[in-house]
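sry for the spam today, last one i promise. struct tokens for design, 415 residues
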């Protein structure tokens, strides 16, 4: 008798005709039952064509090596047609430096890199120490609370407030704008009426347009908005509201969803692998490597889309010009050809840093070192303050194929 949803998913994955497999099903991500479908594609058809899905036809690239080929070949696989699996609303085309190719990509990305670069890294590290200390000191002992709400959201939003240099009381707006950015009109927890989404994002562009014009008249600083406003390549971006919105929202999502879910996913997986939690307590020097393994395991953004600019042969298949191509990072990070015992969480995994969660090539995540700094500092403080933190109830995951999100996670810190 099949007793678990995962066992049922294994049966379904094995029995579904190969040409009928659609790994974009958001419900499977929400129930954590998507793995058997990716396992089968990697084994039998790593360059797989899905002719019929709610998002239209698309290719699934599921092996580590093949995704690397696509992700580093930006002259053939473009971001210009969008990075989500669904097609863009032609009346609401929002561009950012992750959805354009060079030379525009470099012109929009380069100006804001100092915000998380050498010039500011000491300030960022000090802020993370300060906020992590305050957040952890405020946690209750011996009672159940939501780790996502009390820790993961708090730390990531506090840092975002500093990176944008906005008033602390506006921090909740960042979360609302982030959620609206990754929303879809399809089924799932991440669904949202598109008119409501446009209304929320309209508030965002109005907020940052005003802030942009204000910063442009002030001396340059190292926050995202000031850097954009003062750089000659982006100073007039405020005149193109959708482009301004796209770049701002990219920075919000990149600094919020990814790290927030890695913070929660890390504690969850350590509870699922208690031997690794014991190993961590015995050897805190493993924290930096563990942070990379957490990112591999969680893969906060499980997929990214490209569009073929010309016919291309990959894995014995011909991807046609104009075809949508999904790079499933979540599958690459479980590829046994790259990561031995890939379904084992090992904090001392030798090649943990080779994970594909940040992408590769020109669009590789620019803030990856800050994300791992947050994880590292947080875990250094957790080990110094607490015994094992226990996950004590059902974990609620986001029903989304674009964000590996943890919505609620009840935990308890022993007295």
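last one done:
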């Amino acid at each position: 008798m099949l007793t678990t949803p995962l066992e049922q998913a294994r049966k379904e994955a094995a029995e579904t005709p190969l040409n009928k497999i659609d790994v974009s099903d958001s419900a499977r991500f929400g129930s954590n039952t998507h793995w058997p479908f990716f396992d089968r594609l990697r084994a039998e058809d790593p360059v797989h064509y899905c002719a019929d899905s709610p998002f239209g036809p698309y290719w699934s690239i599921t092996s580590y090596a093949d995704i690397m080929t696509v992700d580093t070949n930006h002259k053939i696989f473009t971001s210009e047609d969008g990075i989500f699996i669904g097609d863009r609303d032609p009346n609401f085309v929002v561009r950012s430096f992750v959805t354009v190719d060079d030379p525009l990509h470099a012109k929009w990305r380069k100006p804001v890199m100092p915000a998380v670069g050498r010039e500011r890294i000491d300030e960022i590290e000090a802020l993370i120490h300060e906020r992590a200390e305050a957040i952890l000191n405020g946690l209750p002992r011996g009672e159940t609370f939501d780790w996502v709400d009390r820790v993961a959201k708090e730390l990531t939003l506090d840092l975002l407030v500093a990176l944008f240099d906005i008033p602390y009381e506006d921090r909740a707006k960042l979360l609302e704008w982030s959620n609206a950015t990754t929303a879809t009109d399809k089924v799932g927890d991440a669904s949202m009426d598109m008119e409501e989404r446009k209304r929320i994002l309209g508030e965002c562009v109005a907020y940052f347009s005003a802030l942009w014009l204000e910063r442009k008249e002030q001396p340059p600083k190292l926050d995202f908005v000031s850097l954009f406003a003062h750089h000659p390549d982006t100073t007039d971006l405020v005149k193109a509201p959708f482009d301004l919105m796209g770049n701002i929202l990219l920075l919000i999502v990149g600094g919020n969803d990814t790290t927030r879910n890695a913070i929660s996913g890390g504690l969850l997986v350590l509870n699922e692998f208690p031997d690794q939690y014991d190993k961590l307590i015995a050897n805190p020097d493993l924290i930096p490597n563990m942070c990379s393994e957490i990112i591999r395991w969680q893969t906060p953004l499980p997929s990214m889309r490209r569009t073929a600019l010309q016919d291309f042969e990959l894995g014995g298949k011909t991807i046609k010009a104009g075809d949508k191509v999904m790079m499933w990072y979540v599958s690459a990070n479980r590829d046994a050809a790259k990561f031995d015992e890939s379904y084992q969480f090992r904090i001392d995994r030798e090649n943990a840093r080779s994970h594909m969660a940040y992408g590769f090539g020109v669009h590789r995540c620019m803030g990856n070192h800050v994300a791992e700094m947050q994880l590292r500092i947080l875990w250094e403080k957790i080990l110094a303050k607490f015994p094992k933190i226990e996950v004590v109830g059902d974990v609620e995951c986001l029903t989304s194929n674009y964000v590996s999100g943890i919505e609620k996670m009840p935990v308890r810190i022993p007295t």
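The chain is about 45% helix and 10% strand. ok im logging off now
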